[in-house]
Specification:
The protein is α/β, with parallel strands linked by helices and 261 residues long. The chain has helices spanning 15-26, 42-45, 57-66, 70-77, 105-116, 137-140, 153-173, 192-199, 211-219, 230-260, and strands at residues 3-8, 30-34, 79-80, 86-89, 121-128, 144-150, 178-184, 203-207. Helix 1 (15-26) crosses helix 10 (230-260). The mean pLDDT is 94. Bound molecules: adenosine-5'-triphosphate and magnesium ion. Residues 15-16, 36, 42, 125, 127 line the site of magnesium ion (MG).
Amino acid sequence: MALITLTSASGSPGVTTTAVGLALTRGRPTIVLDADPTGGSAILAGYLRGQIVPPDALVELVMAQQHGRLRSTIPTVTMPVPDSKVSLIPGPRSHTQTGALTGLWEPLLAALKGLTETGQDTIVDLGRLGLAGSATPLLYGADLALVVCRSDLVSLSGARSWVGSLRTEFEQMGAGTELGVLLVGPGHPYGAREVRDALGAPVLASVDWDPKAAAAFSAGATVRKLPSTALVRSLRAVDAALTRTLAAARSELLDVEEEAV
Ligand SMILES: Nc1ncnc2c1ncn2[C@@H]1O[C@H](COP(=O)(O)OP(=O)(O)OP(=O)(O)O)[C@@H](O)[C@H]1O
Ligand SMILES: [Mg+2]
């Protein structure tokens, strides 16, 4: 598929839960990169319940980048997630680390995009927009940039200006990144169409409201029959919808290139 970046404007709408759930559900080789500058490695503490002591992956990648060994180092710092085709690049241990990572994001983006050619996709948890130390190159350089948002008024009100300014920036850059909204909990209370109209951007996919199943991905809760929950079924549909969006964007790009020849 591609490199997909998930971010949010306000609240905690479900970026980490959706990133982890989508990666685990799609059943294809996927790297999850935790780039949330808040630090504290929410995926290690949450889905993995603090049971694994990870390498200081991002610091090792910074050093590898300085020695021209970034691409070959990526496999050595990714942690395989048990019983899945997912591997995790753990996030900054603390927000104080993020200043030292500024120069990493651009080359890491290029390296991870290079891996998509080998069938390895990447899903990035960027955390909230506008934080100090935010890994913005992973947003502006993604194939697909998704603002995760719930459907209530507070969430929509928080996302509206961010989505508007991102749309303008992406249009000005013309860099080939698809920007859209990933809606968590359509119908609680607003539906996808209302959200699209309120935010002025397409709702590219929706994840069902399912707190119990969500806790499996956000907190490592044990959930019976997880694969048949509403959340997991909707995550499968999300994967299919995003694949279609990316395919359509690629064929549009090819048409433009052909016209230019
Ligand atoms: N589809 C969903 N249905 C119900 N609850 C959900 C859903 N997705 C996430 N949640 C719940 O919402 C809470 C916040 O989720 P999560 O930590 O993924 O948000 P976040 O956007 O990553 O937040 P932060 O910006 O603080 O990192 C968690 O309790 C999680 O279980
Ligand atoms: Mg998070």
